[in-house]
Amino acid sequence: MTDPATAVDPRVRIEEVTLTPIHPDRLVDRDLDHPRLDARPPENTSDIYALKVSGWAIGKRQPVTHFELVHRGVILETVPAHPADDEHAGKIDLAVSSLDLPYTFRVAVRAVLEDQTRARIATLSGTRVPLPGAPGPGPSPVLVTTIGRSGSTAVTNLLCHHPDFAGYRSWDTETRVVSYWTAVLRGLARPASYERQLQQPGGPGWANWWVGAQLPNPEIPNDDPALPALGRDSVEAMAAFCRSRIGFVGSSLAAVSGKPGARYFVEKAQTDPVRSVAEVSEELDPRAREIVLVRDLRDVACSMLAYSRRTGVQGFGPQPDASIEDTIRWLSDISAVNLVDYAQRRGPGAHLLRYEDLITRPEATLTDVLEHIGADARAQTVADMLGGLAAEGYRRDLHATTDSAQSSVGRWRHELDADQQALAEHHLRPHLDALGYE
Q: Per residue in 185-199, pLDDT tens?
């Protein structure tokens, strides 16, 4: 029982536990010990930044070998099953950092059988509190979240022509300052990592043992007095450290870029089906802002194919020698669906920027971007930014696959034949509609 004198507000609260009907061909029985189905709401809480699950499952004709925690189709954590009395049974001892969850979440607990088939055991719905946020010590992050070949290099360089914005050699490199430190935070906030300080079977004899990469979580008593400190106070201290490092590195790179007094630091980021770099960043520092950059996906497909063939780089599309048909299918099945889902999830939390608007209505579009960030958006500032980018046209030529930005808009109309356009319409139309493209 928690001592009232030392009680803290729960960091994670499970509000609903639903056992999934047993899959008759896969499981004999299953149950959860924690969180409990019949528990009162105060009991299904955690005072650390982690969600812990314990229970068991019995396979029908083969043993349970692993357990998984899944959110939005993404496996957040996988652990081996602990032995049980029945040869086909396994015990769950699973923990996941709440920093890998949105503030309101619904996760599934699954058993993995010997033949790699899966059976859902339960669904957990709950909430978690954000980390204590505070302004960082340096320029505030401005993240441009998008997929490849959408114009992000031009956008980041355009923003760097603002007197209050800095980026580090943005034509030549792709810095990942915020991505790096938010990944460090999420990695070290995992119970599989910080619990290694208390018990590491066999000693620290494996590379990266401290992040919990090789072995399953050690079994540590739930009443160990060190756990709340590791899972709560230490996580908050690590968050403060990572926030300070983002500010320090951002300030250092801004100074190298000739803007030591910059208020903003610009870099690219990627989407994520559960928690993105931008979402973790704004949890750490409420000043953080995000631009979600989108482009006509048919033009994206053409640009991906042209860039891969010109450079041989397998960074865009399925592979360098892919056909346009392969590229369209790949884009629809992977990048486009993730981008659409992400843009819809972020909603007003991010500024949606269409590449075409920046090309056809640059002044008004850039003004809207700057106003969203809270930066100087006067007409002269906007004009100077656009003029500065235009003067660097030779740098654009190294990245572009068309003669001009204007000719990159609607390129699919003359680069795709009738059959290819029909294929793009079939595969990409739902995503195009969702992003507002005709």
A: 999 999 989 988 877
